[in-house]
């Protein structure tokens, strides 16, 4: 696994019942579940599904929506099938993307550190919207 190439890290899906959704993805689709027990014990906000060694699907309950404050209006995405798409980039591409977005007047969130993803905790991440309102997260991992 290479941490410094552009690729999908995770996609967050809104679901009515994260445990039932995890069971579907495990049983009907054949994917590995992650953190289901921790979710049911209240230790994590949502369970995940491993797509491959580098990509996961997070199964966010609709009740998680009020916590989505990275951009104004983000909580309004609850009920839509996808909350946001995360792109993992090399550090120089991460910095270049943020600069390009700012140069084009695209609002970006503050930088977060240590957010969990498919390959552990990211060094830095931020959020932005495309022209259609789709929310993207950009992140990079330490080398």
UniProtKB/TrEMBL annotation:
InterPro entries: Glyas_Bleomycin-R_OHBP_Dase (IPR029068), Glyas_Fos-R_dOase_dom (IPR004360), GlyoxalaseI/FosfomycinResist (IPR050383), VOC_core (IPR037523). Pfam families: Glyoxalase. Residues 7-141 form the VOC domain. Coiled coil: none annotated. PANTHER family: GLYOXALASE DOMAIN-CONTAINING PROTEIN 5 (PTHR21366:SF14), GLYOXALASE FAMILY PROTEIN (PTHR21366). This is VOC family protein. It comes from Streptomyces musisoli.
């Amino acid at each position: 696994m290479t941490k410094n190439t552009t690729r999908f890290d995770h996609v967050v899906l809104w679901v009515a019942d994260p445990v039932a959704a995890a069971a579907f993805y495990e049983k009907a689709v054949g994917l590995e579940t992650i953190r289901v027990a921790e979710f049911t014990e209240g230790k994590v906000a949502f369970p995940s599904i491993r797509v491959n060694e580098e990509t996961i699907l997070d199964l966010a309950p609709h009740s998680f929506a009020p916590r989505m404050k990275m951009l104004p209006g983000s909580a309004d995405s609850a009920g839509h099938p996808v909350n946001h798409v995360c792109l993992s980039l090399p550090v120089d591409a991460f910095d270049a993307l943020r600069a390009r977005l700012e140069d084009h007047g695209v609002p970006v969130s503050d930088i977060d550190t240590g957010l969990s993803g498919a390959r552990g905790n990211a060094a830095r991440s931020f959020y932005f919207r495309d022209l259609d309102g789709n929310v993207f997260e950009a992140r990079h991992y330490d080398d």
